Amino acid sequence: MAAVELVIEEKKDDAVDRQKVCPFLLRVFVSSTGYHHKASDFNKGNTPQNELQIYTWRDATLHELTQLVKEVNPEARRKGTKFSFAFVYPDIRQPIYRLKEVGITTTGVKGPDDLKTLGSLRYNIGDYMDISITPPENWSSGRKGYSNNYSNHRSRPY
């Protein structure tokens, strides 16, 4: 009797048929300082300088976006480089922008945020993405003033 192999595929709730669904433009602003841009950098029609324009889908993962950024930013390819992701969106009550941090990935290391998708993070088409890149020597626990703790390293102190 022949062996029967059972294969179960996990279907993502927000999976998109990329052959049939048109991608949208994701405007990404990259900071290599280890800090996110200030939300006020986006006010009054302004945007920061380092812009990448990525055509993608709602099922794109943070890991996938990390790979795309590394293609155009050779310094970010080093193992241990951290990518901190944030959405920048307009406040519906005031004429200002808000910044919401949504996850971290690390080059060469699997992490809990790698498989988070834009859809699962409730990304709204038209919002911006801000990515803060931190090289490994700037966040290692051996250096004073830096922390490996996600909550202490996410955004610029004001």
TrEMBL record:
Transmembrane segments: none annotated. Signal peptide: none annotated. Pfam families: SAP18. GO terms for molecular function: transcription corepressor activity. The keyword Ribosomal protein does not apply. InterPro entries: SAP18 (IPR010516), SAP18_sf (IPR042534). One of its GO terms (cellular component) is nucleus. Keywords: Repressor, Transcription, Transcription regulation. PANTHER family: HISTONE DEACETYLASE COMPLEX SUBUNIT SAP18 (PTHR13082:SF0), SAP18 (PTHR13082). Belongs to the SAP18 family. This is 18 kDa Sin3-associated polypeptide.
